[in-house]
UniProtKB/TrEMBL annotation:
PANTHER family: FASCIN, FASCIN-2. Keywords: Glycosidase, Hydrolase, Signal. One of its GO terms (biological process) is polysaccharide catabolic process. Residues 247-507 form the Glycoside hydrolase family domain. It comes from Solanum verrucosum. This is Mannan endo-1,4-beta-mannosidase. It comes from the Eukaryota. Residues 1-28 form the signal peptide. GO terms for cellular component: actin cytoskeleton; cytoplasm. Belongs to the glycosyl hydrolase 5 (cellulase A) family.
C-alpha cells in the first residue's frame, strides 16, 4: 500500500508540473498535451519494404506492375530503345541503357504484360510481320505481349498469335516480309535495327535473335501490385490475414504504456467504396479502421486519419498505390473529386467518434508534379468538407515533398480554425546525407530542423506537426549510443512543434524504422515529458489507474 500511495503522490505532483509547464496544448488531448504519435504504416496501405513477406507467394513476383526492366538482344548486344522516350519507333541500337531503354511493366497475368515507355506510351504491334512502335497512349490487345522466361532471366516476347519478335535491319529499300531468320552479320551491318514480329518457329534459349536478356532496374510493392499480382481472391485472403494480425489491440496497449497519445493511420481512397472498391483494390480496410478507433477509445488514444493514397497517385510512390510510378492525380478533375468524396466519407463516418483528433487531406503530394494552383483549392475544399461534420477536428495539410517551402501553406489562408501543417523529416532520401557522420547529422537537426520549427511556430497560421520522422540515418556502423543521441536530439526538437510529432512507423522489417523494436531494445529513449502525459492520461481514467504500478 505504501508503494502504491507513493506512486499516486508522485503521479499527482508530476501531472501538476505538466499542467503548469506546457505552453500550448492540442484540443482533445488530456493534460495540456501535444501529439505524441506513432504511424500505423504498412497496415491499411501496403508498403512492401515494411512487410516484404506479403509478396512472397505471387507467381513471377519480381514482375509486378511498375517494375522497370531493360531488354538486351543477345545477338546484337544492344538494348531495345523507345526513340525520344516514346511516341516514335522502337529500335535495338543502344549500348548503354538509360531512360529510353527502360520500360515499366503493366501486368495482365503472370506471363502477359504491357510495356510503358518513360514518356507514357506503350509498345504496340498490330500483327505478324509488323514493326513494334511506341505510339499508343492507351493499351489494348495490340499492346499486350506474352513472355517466356528462363532461370537466367532470358526472355522471349511474342504476340497473342504466337509469333515472336526479333530485331530487323532497316534499309532504304521497301521492306519485304521475311519468313527466313536474319543472320547475325546481316543485322550488324546496320546501326538502326527495329523490332518486328516475324521470327520463324519457336526459339530456344541459345543466342538467337528472338532471345533477350532482361535486367531489373526498380520495383514497386504497394496495394496495386499486391492485388493485381495475386488476383482478387488470393489477394483478399492475404490482406484479410494481414489486416487482422499486423495491428491488434495489444499494440494499443503497448503504445498506451509508453506514453503515446495518438496514432496516425494511413488509408487509401478506395476505403470510401469498401464493399465494392474499384479493381484491383481489395475491401476490408474499413472494418480494420473501425477496430482501430474502438481500441484507441478504450486506451484514451486519439486517431488521425491520413489519406495516404489518392486516385491517380499524388507522388508516384508505392505508398500512394501507384500502378507504375506515374503521377496523375493532379491531371484529372475526376481524381480530385474522388479524393474529396473519400474525405467526405471519412469525415461523415468518424466526426462524432470520441477518438477522432484530425483528418489529413493528402499525404506527400509531389512538388514536382502537383502545383499550388491545384493543391491549395483542393485543401480549401477538403477543409470545408471536414467542417461540415465537425467544428473541432483538426484539418491537416501535408507539405509538398521535394523542392517546396512549408511557408507556402501558411501564406495560402486555407482555413480559419484548428488547422495543421504536416512536415516529414528524414535524414535520408537525399544524397546530401549519404556521407554525414553522426555528429554532422545532429548538427543538421539543430541548424535546419530546429530553426524551421521555431520559425513556423512563430508564424500566424496553422500549428506545426512533424508527421513523419525516424531514428535512422545513413551512418555506417552507428553504435547504440549514437542512435540514442540521434533519437534524443530529434525528440528534443520535435517536442517543440506546436501540434506535436508522429514516428514512422510502429512495425517494420527494418529494425530502426520499427518503433516497438527501437523502444524494447533501448535505441529510442522516450523522454520524461512523454511519461508525464501517460500519467495524466491514466489519472483521467479510473479503470486504468492500476497500471500506475508499471510506470
Amino acid at each position: 500500500m505504501e508503494l502504491l500511495f507513493s506512486k499516486w503522490v508522485s503521479a499527482f505532483l508530476l501531472c501538476c508540473w505538466l499542467i503548469f509547464s506546457v505552453g500550448h496544448s492540442v484540443e482533445g488531448l488530456h493534460g495540456n498535451a501535444r501529439v505524441r504519435a506513432v504511424n500505423l504504416g504498412g497496415w491499411l496501405v501496403v508498403e512492401g519494404w515494411i512487410k516484404p513477406s506479403l509478396f512472397d507467394d505471387i507467381p513471377n513476383g519480381d514482375m509486378l506492375d511498375g517494375t522497370q526492366v531493360q531488354l538486351k538482344s543477345v545477338t546484337l548486344q544492344k538494348y531495345i530503345s523507345a526513340q525520344n522516350g516514346g511516341g516514335m519507333n522502337v529500335s535495338v541500337d543502344r549500348d548503354n541503357p538509360l531512360e529510353w531503354e527502360t520500360f515499366k511493366l503493366w501486368r495482365i497475368s503472370e506471363s502477359v504484360f504491357q510495356f510503358r515507355t518513360s514518356e507514357g506510351q506503350f509498345l504496340t504491334c498490330s500483327g505478324d510481320g509488323d514493326s513494334v512502335t511506341a505510339t499508343t497512349e492507351s493499351p489494348s490487345d495490340s499492346e499486350t505481349f506474352y513472355l517466356e522466361r528462363n532461370f537466367n532471366n532470358r526472355v522471349h516476347i511474342k504476340l497473342k498469335s504466337g509469333t515472336y519478335i526479333q530485331p530487323w535491319r532497316c534499309s532504304p529499300e521497301p521492306r519485304v516480309f521475311r519468313k527466313q531468320p536474319l543472320y547475325l552479320h546481316e543485322v550488324e551491318a546496320s546501326n538502326d535495327n527495329v523490332l518486328t514480329a516475324d521470327f520463324p518457329g519457336t526459339p530456344g534459349w541459345d543466342d538467337n535473335p528472338a532471345t533477350f536478356e532482361m535486367t531489373f532496374v526498380a520495383k514497386l510493392q504497394g496495394d496495386y501490385q499486391l492485388a493485381n499480382g495475386y488476383g482478387h481472391n488470393k489477394a483478399k485472403d492475404v490482406l484479410k490475414k494481414h489486416r487482422n494480425s499486423f495491428i491488434t489491440v495489444d499494440d494499443f496497449d503497448f503504445l498506451y504504456r509508453h506514453g503515446i497519445n495518438t496514432v496516425r493511420i494511413p488509408v487509401g481512397w478506395w476505403i470510401a467504396s469498401d464493399s465494392n472498391p474499384p479493381a484491383p483494390f481489395i475491401g476490408g480496410s474499413l472494418e480494420a479502421l473501425d477496430n482501430a478507433f474502438s481500441w484507441a477509445q478504450a486506451y484514451n488514444i486519439k486517431c488521425i486519419i491520413d489519406l495516404h493514397a489518392a486516385p491517380g497517385s499524388q507522388n508516384g510512390m508505392e505508398h500512394s498505390a501507384s500502378r507504375d510510378g506515374t503521377v496523375n492525380w493532379q491531371t484529372s478533375p475526376e481524381h480530385i473529386a474522388q479524393t474529396l468524396d473519400a474525405i467526405e466519407f471519412l469525415a461523415s463516418r468518424y466526426a462524432v467518434h470520441p477518438a477522432l483528433l484530425g483528418i489529413e487531406l493528402l499525404n506527400e503530394p509531389s512538388a514536382a508534379d502537383v502545383s499550388l494552383d491545384i493543391l491549395v483549392p483542393f485543401y480549401k475544399q477538403g477543409y470545408q468538407i471536414v467542417r461540415k461534420y465537425s467544428s473541432t477536428a483538426y484539418v491537416i495539410f501535408c507539405q509538398r515533398i521535394g523542392n517546396a517551402d512549408p511557408f507556402e501553406l501558411y501564406q495560402a489562408n486555407i482555413g480559419s480554425s484548428n488547422t495543421v501543417v504536416d512536415l516529414h523529416y528524414y535524414n535520408l532520401f537525399d544524397r546530401y546525407f549519404d556521407k554525414l557522420t553522426s555528429s554532422e547529422n545532429i548538427q543538421f537537426l539543430y541548424k535546419n530542423r530546429q530553426s524551421q520549427i521555431q520559425a513556423l511556430n512563430s508564424a500566424n497560421g496553422p500549428l506545426v506537426f512533424v508527421g513523419e520522422w525516424v531514428n535512422e540515418w545513413n551512418v555506417t556502423n552507428g553504435s547504440l549510443a549514437d542512435y540514442q543521441d540521434f533519437g534524443r536530439v530529434q525528440l528534443d526538437i520535435y517536442n517543440a512543434a506546436s501540434f506535436g510529432w508522429s514516428y514512422w512507423t510502429l512495425k517494420c522489417k527494418k529494425q530502426h524504422w520499427d518503433f516497438e523494436w527501437s523502444i524494447r531494445n533501448n535505441y529510442l529513449q522516450l523522454q520524461p515529458g512523454i511519461k508525464l502525459t501517460l500519467l495524466a492520461s491514466m489519472l483521467a481514467q479510473p479503470n486504468r489507474k492500476h497500471l500506475l504500478l508499471n510506470v
